[in-house]
Amino acid sequence: FTWFTINYRLAPQHRFPACAEDVESAIKWVKAHAAEYKADPARIAIIGESAGGHLVSWVGVRGTGNTRVAAVVPFYAPNDLELQNKGREAPGPSMTALFGMTEWSDANHKIIQDASPLSHVKAGLPPFLLIHGNADKQVPYEQSPAFQKAMQAAGNTCDLITIKGGGHGMGGWEKLGSDYAAQMIAWLRKTLH
Prior knowledge:
Layout: H1 18-33, E1 45-49, H2 51-62, E2 71-75, H3 81-84, H4 93-99, H5 106-114, E3 128-133, H6 143-153, E4 158-163, H7 180-192
Parallel strand pairs: 1-2, 2-3, 3-4
Helix pairs in contact: 1-2
């Protein structure tokens, strides 16, 4: 594997979709420079955690042409921002920072729906491997099985590794006896051939 770690612009200085555009720019850059690093531009997987998981999912479901990738691995990703905000009387600090919204309205619900990868699931997407702890208190675990179900219903490959007792963040997952890292590498090797 050849590994690239990227940065992206952060909210609130840069509102969505600036962060997603930076991920797309990184994909284009890696494809353009793949030969220099002995990488195959046709076998790019994007991986991200939490907010980064949301970004790789969003780019993965929307990518076309030179932003399309071969595989997507989101860790504990908020793929449904409506579900993420369910029951809240007002948008939380992350929604305010990312989108500039301070209250719920029909227009704001449409914005977070459009920013939800779940809203863009369709046939022909790259394979996804979701990795999520079922004791996550920040991003409800139910988001991953719901996203998997939608992906599979559209005819896409979408696998899920559930970390039993795992919270938000992979620190401590090994103490739970999870071999998620080995499973992910095996999945990438199989998926990317």
